[in-house]
């Protein structure tokens, strides 16, 4: 039984049950990818387009592997090699791709809302692989999967999201997913990058890292983008590391079995110290491994949704 | 020929008249207002049955983008004035951010001559404050004023330099020419595309803080106070801006201000779904701002409701939210939205609404409109304030249909619009109200 929806745009749209269904399905796919032959025929004959308007290597690769392990045909379409440079509108691009009869569009775009815009206009399933600063649902799901794998639960867990909350689609997705599943979420960062209005979603906000780390079960450290390091939001990378860098000393405030997460790529020595990144509590590479299983689950469940492309297969 | 508008509810804010009356039009002017049925029409008089309708001075819209010249694919003087007529608007001030901009005599004459030959309603051009809207050098305001310009504005661009703004106020003040400054601090607005509140944050849309509007308004109020010149604040959209204007008026600053129907009818909750038709500058703020704007209109802090009618074609709206052109096509929904939000809700008597949509904007623009007293220009609107209708963007007379109000259930329907005594719009179902002589 698939998801009763055509698209995956944001974790805000999903019910608690849908999230758990995806995580359970991902668990069985994780078992699949640990086999010697890491392939199932679930999406055989289907075409998946990786439509990336923003450069990305790891997310695109992860989706490509996920689709291939489901036996789908995968086409990569990136802004540099497409008609976008010729000034074609997004709508025309989508119409052209749809005219080639694809079943699923995996899409990344620098504008918030671009994925839902495409989803409204396309017959194909749309999986949001990141739209501006809005959402990145499969990242949120793989973070949830990794937490559940280690902790076995969400209820009552204290999760700190550290860094540039304002510009982070990862933070937004985590926040929606975690609060739906009963975790307590703290957001922390410099006042210039900490939107207090998000406390309306039932999270707490602080500018003091120590306060956020105190007794935390999970610390998810966000990447500080290079373009935020121009002195407009905080004085320097050095000062950021001084005030918000997660290091071993500060981590003593958290629970002894705290999980350290990071969506990558890391700025070692800025938001995360190398010792923490490579330490025993870090699950950063597990996140990458789980990403493939979670994306397989999403592609599979959307394609077998009622009215979806795989529904009549059985 | 004489026309009798018979038995309507005559609203004339200038004389505080709100009662049934017969309105006689002759030679493009109001000839007389008589008690209902007091005098019988002559055989050669054309009679309009206005029973059940409100009869008011035509609406005066102080903020309209007609897009001509330069963007005739969005709107023209002909189509924009037809939209105005359908919306009950008989006079409008058109903004100078055309291509090329209206910053010299030739451009003003072009607009006026097209308006004369193709326009359905009265068009009063606004010219630029600075040449090419570059914020560097003042336009030749003396000549522009003599040519018929009613105000100056670099609409879409604020005059950033405080020194130049101060100078513009002094110079325009000398000519008794109204200065309208686009109320936005571009640096604070940054790359923002929506009001910097919870909704924009949740949706990942770059936010425009209230201070982007309010910093510029504060500066302009201080400069107007210092120079003693008049300033008009366009598209007021936040509670803080209303407060600033209220305080300035209390201490005698010569300020007038307008807000737009979309700020009265919507809050930033409308951002959910990323409908590019709600992308507008300044952005739609929160419920508390909406309430403060309504209070400001009720107590007179805000003088006028102006549409900021900003038509755009679909190719500028069917796209990513942040890339879409800002603006709402407003002329054909303005009266209904205001009737719904302000009058049907009990916040404002109908006469007061006509004051804010007709008389006061006419006065602040310095044009002899907005009244139906004997001798006044016979510009009027006949409308049913209580009709329930559904907005149909597909039926707009405007060349564009970028509205977030399509399919909204609203109050009020324009039956007919007259300019200089002649009908310029008659709703299909009201054709029979005209009884030819």
Summarize this, please?
The complex is a heterodimer of chains A (314) and B (437). Chain A is an alpha/beta fold and 314 residues long.
Distance between the termini of chain A: 11 Å
Strand content of chain A: 5-15%
Q: What is the global morphology of chain A? A: globular
Radius of gyration of chain B: 21 Å
- Helical run tally of chain B: 12
The proportion of residues in beta strands of chain B is 15-25%
Query: How many strand segments of chain B?
Result: 19
Structural class of chain B: alpha/beta
**Low-pLDDT regions of chain A:** 310-314
Shape of chain B: globular
Mean pLDDT over all positions of chain B: 97
Structural class of chain A: alpha/beta
| Total helical segments of chain A | 11
Low-confidence parts of chain B lasting 5 or more residues at pLDDT below 50? none
Order of helices and strands of chain A: HEHEHEHEHEHEEHEHHEHH
Would you count the extended β strands of chain A for me? 9
Task: Write structural notes for this entry.
The complex is a heterodimer of chains A (314) and B (437). Chain A has 314 residues and is an alpha/beta fold. Chain A has eleven helices and nine strands. A five-stranded parallel beta sheet of chain A has the order 7-6-5-8-9. In chain A, strands 2-1-3-4 form a four-stranded parallel beta sheet, with helices on both faces. In chain A, strand 1, helix 2 and strand 2 form a beta-alpha-beta unit. Chain B is α/β, with parallel strands linked by helices. Chain B is 29% helix and 23% strand. In chain B, the strands form three sheets. In chain B, strands 1, 2, 3, 4, 5, 16, 17, 18 and 19 form a nine-stranded mixed beta sheet that branches. In chain B, strands 6-7-8-9-10-13-14-15 form an eight-stranded parallel beta sheet. In chain B, strand 2 and strand 3 form a beta hairpin. In chain B, helix 7 packs parallel to helix 8. The mean pLDDT of chain B is 97. The interface between A and B is medium-sized, with 24 and 17 residues.
């Amino acid at each position: 039984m698939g998801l009763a929806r055509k698209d995956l745009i944001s974790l805000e749209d999903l019910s608690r049950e849908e999230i758990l269904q995806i995580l359970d399905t991902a668990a069985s796919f994780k078992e699949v990818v640990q086999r010697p032959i890491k392939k199932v025929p679930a999406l055989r004959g289907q075409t998946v387009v990786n439509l990336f308007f923003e450069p990305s290597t790891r997310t695109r690769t992860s989706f490509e592997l996920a689709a291939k392990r489901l036996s789908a045909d995968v086409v990569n379409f990136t802004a540099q090699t497409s008609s976008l440079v010729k000034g074609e509108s997004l709508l025309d691009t989508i119409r052209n791709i749809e005219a080639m009869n694809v079943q699923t569009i995996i899409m990344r775009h620098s504008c918030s809302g671009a994925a839902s815009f495409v989803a409204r206009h396309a017959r194909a399933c749309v999986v949001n692989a990141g739209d501006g600063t809005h959402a990145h649902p499969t990242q949120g799901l793989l973070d949830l999967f990794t937490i559940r794998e280690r902790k076995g639960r969400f209820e009552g867990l204290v999760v700190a999201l550290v860094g540039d909350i304002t510009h982070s689609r990862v933070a937004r997705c985590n926040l929606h997913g975690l609060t739906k599943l009963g975790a307590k979420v703290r957001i922390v960062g410099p006042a210039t990058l900490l939107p207090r209005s998000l406390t309306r979603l039932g999270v707490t906000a602080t500018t003091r890292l120590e306060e956020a780390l105190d007794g935390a079960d999970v610390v998810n450290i966000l990447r500080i983008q290079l373009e935020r390091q121009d002195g407009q939001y905080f004085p320097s990378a050095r000062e950021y590391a001084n005030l918000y860098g997660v290091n071993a000393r500060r981590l003593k405030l958290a629970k002894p079995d705290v999980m350290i997460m990071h969506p990558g790529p890391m700025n070692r020595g800025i938001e995360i110290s190398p010792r923490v990144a490579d330490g025993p509590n870090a699950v950063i590479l597990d996140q990458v491994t789980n990403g493939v299983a979670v994306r397989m689950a999403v592609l599979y469940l959307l394609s077998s949704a009622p009215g979806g492309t795989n529904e009549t297969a059985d | 020929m004489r026309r009798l508008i018979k038995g309507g509810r005559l609203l004339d804010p200038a004389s505080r008249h709100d009662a049934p009356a017969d309105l006689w039009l002759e030679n493009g002017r109001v000839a007389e207002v008589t008690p209902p049925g007091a005098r019988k029409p002559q055989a050669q008089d054309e009679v309009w049955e206005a029973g059940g309708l409100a009869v008011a001075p035509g609406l005066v819209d102080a903020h309209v983008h007609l897009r001509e010249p330069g963007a005739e694919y969005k709107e023209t003087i002909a189509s924009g004035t037809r939209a105005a007529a359908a919306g009950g608007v008989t006079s409008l001030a058109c903004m100078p951010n055309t291509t090329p901009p209206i910053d010299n005599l030739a451009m003003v004459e072009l607009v006026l001559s097209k308006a004369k030959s193709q326009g359905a309603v009265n068009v009063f051009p606004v010219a630029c404050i600075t040449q090419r809207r570059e914020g560097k050098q003042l336009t030749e305001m003396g000549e522009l004023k003599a040519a018929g310009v009613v105000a100056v504005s670099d609409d879409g661009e604020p005059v950033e330099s405080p020194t130049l703004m101060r100078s513009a106020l002094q110079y325009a003040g000398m000519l008794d020419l109204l200065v309208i400054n686009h109320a936005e601090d571009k640096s604070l607005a940054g790359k923002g595309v929506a009001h910097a509140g919870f909704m924009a944050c949740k949706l990942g849309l770059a936010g425009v803080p209230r201070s982007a509007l309010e910093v510029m308004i504060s500066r302009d109020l201080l400069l107007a106070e210092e120079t003693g010149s008049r300033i008009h604040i366009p598209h007021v959209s936040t509670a803080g801006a209303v407060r600033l204007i209220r305080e300035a008026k209390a201490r005698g600053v010569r300020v007038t201000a307008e807000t737009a129907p979309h700020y009265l009818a919507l809050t930033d909750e409308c951002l959910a779904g990323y409908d590019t038709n709600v992308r507008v500058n300044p952005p739609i703020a929160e419920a508390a701002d909406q309430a403060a704007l309504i209070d400001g209109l009720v107590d007179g802090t805000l003088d006028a409701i102006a549409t900021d009618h900003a038509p755009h074609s679909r190719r500028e709206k069917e796209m990513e939210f942040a890339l879409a052109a800002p603006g709402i096509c407003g002329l054909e929904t303005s009266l209904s939205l205001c009737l719904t939000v302000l009058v049907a809700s009990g916040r404002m008597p109908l006469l007061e609404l006509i004051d804010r949509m007709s008389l006061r904007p006419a006065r602040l623009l310095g044009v002899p409109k907005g009244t139906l007293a004997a001798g006044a220009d016979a510009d009027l609107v006949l409308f049913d304030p209580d009709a329930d209708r559904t907005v149909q963007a597909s039926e707009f007379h405007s060349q564009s249909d970028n509205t977030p109000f399509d399919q909204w259930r609203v109050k009020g329907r324009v039956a007919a619009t007259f300019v200089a005594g002649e009908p310029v719009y008659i709703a299909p179902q009201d054709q029979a109200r005209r009884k030819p002589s």
